[in-house]
Amino acid sequence: MAILEVDGSLGEGGGQILRSSIALSLVTGTPFRLVNVRAGRKRPGLMRQHLTAVQAAAEVGQAQVTGAEIGSLQLTFHPGTVRSGDYCFSVGTAGSATLVLQTVFPALALATGRSTVTVEGGTHNPMAPPFDFLARAFLPLVDRMGPRSTAVLERPGFYPAGGGRFHVAIEPAAVFGRLDLRERGEIRARRATAVVALLKRSIAERELAQVREHLGWDDSTLRIESVAKAVGPGNVVSVEVESEHVTELFSGFGERGVSAERVGSTVAREAADYLAAGVPVGPHLADQLLLPMALGAGGVFRTQEPSGHTCTHAELLKSFLGSDVRIRKLSELVWEIEVPARA
Amino acid sequence: MSRKKTVVVGLLGPTLDLGTKTNRWERWRPTVSLCQHEDLLVDRLELLYQRRYTALAQTVTADIQSVSPETEVVHRLIEFEDAWDLEEVYGALLDFARSRVWAPDKEDYLVHITTGTHIAQISMFLLVEAHHIPARLIQTAPPVRSQGGTAGSFAIIDLDLSKYDTIAARFRREQKEGLSLLKAGIDTRNAAFNQLIERIEQVAIRSRDPLLLMGPTGAGKSQLARRIFELKKARRQVAGPLVEVNCATLRGDGAMSTLFGHVKGAFTGAIADRQGLLRKANGGILMLDEIGELGSDEQAMLLHAIEEKSFFPVGSDREVQSDFQLIAGTNRDLRRDVEQGRFREDLLARIDLWSFKLPGLRERPEDVAPNLEYELDRWAQSGGEAVTFSREARDRFLDFARGPGAAWAGNFRDFNAAVRRMATLASGGRVTREIVDEEIVRLRDAWRSGEVSSGGLVDEILGSRAAGVDPFDRVQLEEVLRACRSARSLSEAGRSLFAISRTRKASSNDADRLRKYLARYGLAWADVATRR
Fold first, then answer.
1. What pLDDT score was predicted for residue B82?
2. pTM value?
3. Cα of B143 to nearest chain A Cα, Å
4. Domains by residue range for chain A, with CATH
5. How far is B35 from chain A (nearest CA, A)?
């Protein structure tokens, strides 16, 4: 099979192109060569978090890989047969456990047998979707497309200490079914959770006070979770909106030098924008949905203004699958994205 | 995916790496930070620590396993009492460096120099700089406040890059000043030789009588004398120095005064008192190598000096005292010299009380390998660079050296020269099969042409000073000395050496030209002429 060349400097570049290319390659069997990896960055080439994703994928897809070295500007990936089974991947803090899962998930969701994946490391990392987003927003929508997954968090792992662990059980389907998600439907539940691991409870209280103030939610929606069995300290606040057709989740991370008020208000504002747009799908979820939809029967959804990641993704899908993802602006706040079925 | 593994070797920092509470994650800890970088994957961390920091080592290890599951942490206990004692710390780290097999073709080594006392950091630097650890240095630094995070930054420094040569030279000086360590005992296996050495040590410790060391050239007589001196010094049996002289270099008028000294005005040119080597050796050891080359007057004076512990300096009517132990060396059969009237019978009887015959290298094939290790050690210590043989090169060289094809005409002198040549040619501190093959050809050629050792006459006449002669000049000097040896006078030697240019000159002073040339090496005609 002819090797597909992917330009690593496409769009925002970086790890996203690498992970999505691997995910697409594993499902389609198309080998690819990624060039200009993180070209023009201060520290160009592959980084550790990329290598962990490559190695996990090589194991799942029995792939042959060259150039998988730190600082490498070029990587070739020849996928073999995807094997379902029980996998365990350990990821350093610098990387993210959820990103590794995303890399291998589409292939395992369409594999011949049931799989379980355990990932250890950073489960709540500011640079990646947190576990809760995966479990409550993304995976339930994929369930609707066919494959069934359940995700369980054993314990969170925050930057920089890591040490978290979660398990995902995947019951595969033959194909990803069509997804139509134009309407959010009635809001059924609102939840805001502030998690503090080995840190003062007052941090969580101050964050939730911001959520209450910006969103006008009452105290019954607010919850503090204190984690004692984490390896290192950490804090995350999640705002979850459960609607008739979809659940969306927004997160903010506590960070040294950033006040709890600022963390709380930022995530509350993100949720407020989502609620104001009246769409079912937020920007992060939109980005995640493109790949399974394009690999399956396609579909359509409405969302907020697409992020740079989403546009890069659309380009990548065109080169791997020849799919034309159509992105249309419907109004000031609403966009519609239509993904064709895989040819 | 076959890439070299990245292996970091570093000391646990009892201060900087400290932390057991949750807030340790908010602090920069250099050893943990090594494994937190996105662009540095540490496959293995060799953590050096003292037993009393075991608990800290365990915390740091657990934290590294959490932030970097790819990293295998290996614990290495290392003990020193005083972390600020350079010799002790360096010694302990050197032991570690030598106790372990480095595989630079399979692993990429980085030595972390941010932790430990400054003394430990300097020691680590020195070990890398001297190639005892085939590594590059890695230095870590705490994060800049505005950047956030706790990983900070790191920098890799390759000391082999020429831009660090000046720094390296500076450290080498400091190394020489600070470290006079490591007595290198050769692990010899030849039973007869070991027995001989045992006996010499017994005698050396119990007796102050003269010792006679016999053996072919290059068998290690001077080295043995030096070891005896070191041994007696360690047992506090000598207070004075070791004074060494090769009697072959003592010729003509100067010989007497060199040995016994002279007083001012004793002869033309004696413008001041001269102490002489015998008096210099007072309280210590006098090593007279090639004692068979000593003239008959000197032999008589020496006998007197040994028996009476006193003698007359040239031109003096007052006896001076000197109490020294004599070690004499010879490669000649002194008994035959006595029969032929060349050596005094009474002197031989006096120095022959304890005589030991050192075997040549060919008689000690078992000791070739340990001597190779020893010479490489010496090379590393004197030149500052650790050199190793590839397995193939080592096997090849040892096979040759122990085999019938190796004449070892100059014994350990040839062997030493061979190792030094190979070590010099080893780029990157690695002696390859090619270098060995080249050396074997070189040795065979030398033995075939009957040259005893690389220096020939230069070595014979200049003795230890020959080491200070550039190879470039050595070739010329060797030829000049050869001409002198075959000439009857300075003028005759001059005529033959300047045979071409003298024909173009109206007047020539070949003898003067030659005298000035020899003087550059501190030599006079008497030093270089054959005795007749």
1. 87
2. 0.59
3. 13
4. 1-81 (3.30.110), 84-174 (3.65.10.20), 187-277 (3.30.360.20)
5. 9
